[in-house]
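Side project, low priority. Logging it here so it doesn't get lost.
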Amino acid sequence: MLKAGIVGLPNVGKSTLFNAVTRTRNAEAANYPFCTIDPNVGVVTVPDDRLETLGNLNKSQKIIPAAIEFVDIAGLVEGASEGAGLGNKFLANIREVDAIVQVVRCFENDDIIHELGNVDPLRDIEIINSELILADIAALEKRKESRTKKARGGDKEAVKELALIEKLLPHLDSGKPALTLDITEDERPVLRDFFLLSSKRSIFACNVSEDELAETQLDPDSHAMVARVREYAATSQNAEAIVISARIEEELVELEPDEATEFLADMGITDSGVSTLIRAVYQLLGLRTYLTSGEKETRAWTIRQGDKAPAAAGVIHGDFERGFIAAEVVAFEDLVRSGSKSDARDAGKLRIEGKDYVVKDGDVIEFRFNV
């Protein structure tokens, strides 16, 4: 299962957000730095309204959503790349995740200590990014030394690595993350093998106060701090910035779904910020969902974007992939409009697809196989 790491400076709301995302209170959320030391891990279901619709259509006994893993990582401070604070632990933990959710404090509150004395979201982002970049520079300098010896001996892979390192180091030295380096398709697998921290894709969670949430969700640029983060995310990393209030989301954990919906409606909010964040992280990880549905269960299956039908079948069971014959496919919207699978077939909306079919998000599929 792919993992997203929740990172940020101390006291920006990381652990509070983790508790809300995972619907637990596993992470200690306290008003002092480093209240998270060992990373908390939680499996999170991906909100998907299509499941309930399909379940009702087929009178399914059970509904099983897709899931991803979130990790609450210790707060980082300036100098982490040199071991300051819990820097070494932080960097080791972040190396193990597949994407980063960077929580950025976008609220003023004199009762909640900020590590640096005042609230400045762009400064906070730059501190985290700088520490990731500095750690990458140190790792690449070490790698360059070992690969230089091999390249002199005629090792072709070492020559490839050195060429990319020579492109990366000046890019990183200029303060830019590895993610934004313009590389060729041939260089892409080499970059992946470097496991650089700044090559991981990020999403920014703008943590606003409770009384600012409704207005900021309606118009994010009306909030000065959020507007700055959104502009930075878009221009520097081609990333998304999501508005959340970790405090409100944590309160929602205590409520039943109907109560939570009513609570949000009273605030003028139609959807939970956490639901939006989870769906955005799922997309960021390059994951997509296809669906199966019947009387026994309606289920969301997780695949990689671009997966073909046999690989998608293999997510259910290896035998499905090995013995793949064909896939009966109907788009979710076409199935719902038709009212049933047989009616979708009669309307020409159900298709038989072969091994080269690239599965689309929201496809409802039944596989034919033989082993």
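Brief comment: The first helix runs from residue 14 to 22.
Revisit when time allows.
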